[in-house]
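Appendix B. Chain record.
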Amino acid sequence: MSIANWCVLAACLLPVVTVGAAKASVGMKSPRKGGYDNHNPRQWEAGLTGWQQRANAAQANGFEALPLFIAAVLMAQQAQADQGVIDQWALAFIGIRLAYIASYLMDKAALRSLIWMAGVAVCIYIMSLAG
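Structure tokens predicted for this chain:
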């Protein structure tokens, strides 16, 4: 499996890890005391505030970013573009997504938007490798 394919897997797991941090932050509290409620997860999410709310939003954006990234990698690979180049840019995308998550959690909105644009630009570049 190529590095780019591993990056696709990583991109798929990042949203899960992101929201997992918010869920883990409430520890073993009961749902009545603000703990995670697996019976009503959407209701629990609606009550989040602060960094936990931003982690949940970062999770949603992570899932939204997946189709473009996956399509870009697959298109470039199907066109038999240089796998080393695809791998490098796929790693760059993962680095960008990690920076995006960090900026979201730290509530750096303007920086987060710039990082998001960089992620889209990387995906477009990977797609352009398909010729």
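Further analysis of this model is presented in Appendix C.
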